[in-house]
Amino acid sequence: MQSTRSRRKVAPAAADGGDSGDKLEQLLLSSAICNCEDLGPFIRKAFTSGRPETLLHHLRHFARSKESEIEEVCKAHYQDFILAVDDLRSLLSDVDSLKSSLSDSNSRLQSVAGPLLSSLDSFVEAQNISKNVEFALQSVTSCIKLMELCSRANHHLSNGSFYMALKCLDLIENEFQDKTPSSTLKRMLERKMPEIRSYIERKISKEFGNWLVEIRVVSRNLGQLAIGQASAARQREEDLRIKQRQAEEQSRLSLRDCVYALEENDDEGGLGGDENDGYNGNSGLLGFDLTPLYRAYHIHQTLGLEDRFKQYYFENRKLQLTSDFQVSSMTPFLESHQTFFAQIAGFFIVEDRVLRTGGGLISKMEVENLWDTAVSKMCSVLEDQFSRMQTANHLLLIKDYVSLLGVTLRRYGYPVDALLDVLSKHRDKYHELLLSDCRKQIAEVLAADKFEQMLMKKEYEYSMNVLSFQIQTSDIIPAFPYVAPFSSTVPDCCRIVRSFIEDSVSFMSYGGQLDFYDVVKKYLDRLLSEVLDEALLKLISLSVHGVSQAMQVAANMAVLERACDFFFRHAAQLSGIPLRMAERGRRQFPLNKARDAAEEMLSGMLKTKVDGFMTLIENVNWMTDEPSQGGNEYVNEVIIYLETLVSTAQQILPSQVLKRVLQDVLSHISEEIVGALLGDSVKRFNVNAIMGIDVDIRLLESFADNLAPLFSEGDANQLKNALAESRQLINLLMSNHPENFLNAVIRERSYNTLDHRKVMTISEKLRDPSDRLFGTFGSRGAKQNPKKKSLDALIKRLKDVS
Question: What keywords appear on the UniProt entry (predicted)?
Answer without folding.
Answer: Cytoplasm, Exocytosis, Transport
